[in-house]
């Protein structure tokens, strides 16, 4: 994020917070700095208390569907990291920055024509505590943050949000997220499904989940990086052959010096970071693998869209498809290209346990950012129960 973006955020933060009354009730926002007209969509912002003891509050943006809000799905969307702010300027949100050289003036915003609000209402949530505008009044609220508190805070948020927004309780609901939030999405969805089975209120109309380039925490995530890097020409035949010879198919925990040396060579220039994400707050990855949650949910009839940019070295599509295939469910729509505007936009396959796996041609780790038009088309078709 450049200086211009940081300047805009410094203006947006107090602007948004001033709109929120002391009662923390939701507020409709009609204008934003950097966008000269009235917002062409319905935007609501607010805080929801998720932990009375520490005063933890999660901040959200709610963008109502621009199509048929009374019947369209509602999607909770979280970004990765953890501690990456969702905001409305990234991924599925309805605004984007106008890219221009920084000249000291206020950066401009533009309407995103490929916002997922074209097909669904979206709750963009800053979670866990410490992400974006979400905070805790007591410093203890920033201690012991991890997968467990993350998932339970989101569950509390959703129960309170749907209680305050009963109009949307009957709409189909999906949990969604990219990268690390892709790990948390099925965990949160399973918590919701358990509350549904117990008859708890409000009854959230959970239908499934959507994850992009998802982390699982399992060995699948890392073990396909070397084969993928060779397949797309990042590493040489010689280095790949040395990896095969010395590591014997296991590229995560080297058992000898030669394998370790090869993997160290592979790691050079391949590492990056999300600059809009907080790195100073400790986070505990307490769930070693989310794969069992995917299996449990889809085995019980919940739909899942799992998509991957095919230019992602962080979580290669080979890694994601490998754990999807490990469930050994039968194929109902075999591997094929899916198209947009007469061109192949990626490839897809659907399994009998309600999982649709799709690749996004040319997409990176945050494929919605890289291929917004294709990702919107994919989401719209899947949410409308149409084949990709």
From TrEMBL:
It catalyses: Preferential release of a C-terminal arginine or lysine residue. Residues 1-25 form the signal peptide. It holds the Pfam family Peptidase_S10. Gene3D superfamilies: 3.40.50.11320, alpha/beta hydrolase. InterPro entries: AB_hydrolase_fold, Peptidase_S10. Its EC number is 3.4.16.6. GO terms for molecular function: acyltransferase activity, transferring groups other than amino-acyl groups; serine-type carboxypeptidase activity. It comes from the Eukaryota. Belongs to the peptidase S10 family. This is carboxypeptidase D. It comes from Triticum turgidum subsp. durum (Durum wheat). The lineage of its organism: Eukaryota, Viridiplantae, Streptophyta, Embryophyta, Tracheophyta.
């Amino acid at each position: 994020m450049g200086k211009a973006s940081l300047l805009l955020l410094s203006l947006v933060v107090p602007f948004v917070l001033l709109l929120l009354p002391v009662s923390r009730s939701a507020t409709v926002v009609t204008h934003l700095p950097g966008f000269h007209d009235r917002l062409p969509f319905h935007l609501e912002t607010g805080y929801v208390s998720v932990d009375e003891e520490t005063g933890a509050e999660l901040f959200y943006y709610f963008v109502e569907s621009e199509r048929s809000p009374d019947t369209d799905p509602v999607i909770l969307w979280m970004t990765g990291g953890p501690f990456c702010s969702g905001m409305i300027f990234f991924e599925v949100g309805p605004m984007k920055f106008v890219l221009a050289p920084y000249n000291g003036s206020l950066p401009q915003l533009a309407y995103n024509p490929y916002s997922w609000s074209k097909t669904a209402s979206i709750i963009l949530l800053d979670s866990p505590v410490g992400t974006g505008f979400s905070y805790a009044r007591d410093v203890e609220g920033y201690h012991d943050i991890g997968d467990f508190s993350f998932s339970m805070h989101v569950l509390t948020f959703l129960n309170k949000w749907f209680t305050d927004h009963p109009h949307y309780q009957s709409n189909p609901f999906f949990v969604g997220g990219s990268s690390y939030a892709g790990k948390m999405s099925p965990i949160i969805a399973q918590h919701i499904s358990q509350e549904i089975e117990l008859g708890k209120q409000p009854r959230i109309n959970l239908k499934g989940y959507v994850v992009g380039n998802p982390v699982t925490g399992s060995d699948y995530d890392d073990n396909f990086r070397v084969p993928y890097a060779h397949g797309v020409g990042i590493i040489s035949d010689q280095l790949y052959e040395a990896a095969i010879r010395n590591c014997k198919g296991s590229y995560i925990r080297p058992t000898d010096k030669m394998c370790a040396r090869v993997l160290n060579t592979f790691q050079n220039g391949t590492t990056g970071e999300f600059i809009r994400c907080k790195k100073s707050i400790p986070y505990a990855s307490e769930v070693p693998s989310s794969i069992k949650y995917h299996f449990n949910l889809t085995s019980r009839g919940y739909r899942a869209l799992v998509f991957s940019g095919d230019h992602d070295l962080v979580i290669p599509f080979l890694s994601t498809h490998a754990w999807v295939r490990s469930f050994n469910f039968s194929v109902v729509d075999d591997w094929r290209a899916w198209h947009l505007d007469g061109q192949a936009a990626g490839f897809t396959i659907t399994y009998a346990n309600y999982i649709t796996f799709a690749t996004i041609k040319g997409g990176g780790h945050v494929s919605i950012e890289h291929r917004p038009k294709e990702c919107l088309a994919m989401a719209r078709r899947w949410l409308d129960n149409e084949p990709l």
